[in-house]
Amino acid sequence: MKKRGFTILEIIIVAIFASLLLIFFFIQKSNIDAMERDEDRKVAINAMYYALEESYYKNHGYYPEFISEDNIKVIDPSLWTDPNGFNLGDPQSSYSYEAANCKDGKCKEYTLKAELEKEDAFIKYNRN
After folding, report:
1. How many domains, in total, are found in the chain?
2. Residue 37 covered by a domain
3. Per-residue pLDDT tens for 17-40?
4. What is the 3 state secondary structure string of the chain?
């Protein structure tokens, strides 16, 4: 008479295969989450860029020495905070704004940058 069921070897093989699938899933999920955070950073930098160009520069004729939600009010305030919870201007923030060629707080140039996880830094320069 033959017994029904699985052998220990069959159970071990299935467990190893399931473990490999789980490992692959979590690695891919981690990569997808990082790419999503990178896209959020790009959206925020683009919003700041267009606010500077289409709103601030057109109204003032120069760029500010520093930017924040106090002087750039046309974008969603949540965009000033990076995916790690740090605001632009904080040393730990993945966002940075560097004004250049300034006199009395009025600048002619700037660089906006976001440090990304899966790509090189995303950088925008002044248009005018």
Report:
1. 1
2. yes
3. 999 999 999 989 999 999 999 999
4. CCCCCCCHHHHHHHHHHHHHHHHHHHHHHHHHHHHHHHHHHHHHHHHHHHHHHHHHHHHHCCEECCCCCCCCCCCCHHHHECCCCCECCCCCCCEEEEEEEEECCEEEEEEEEECCCCCCCEEEECCC
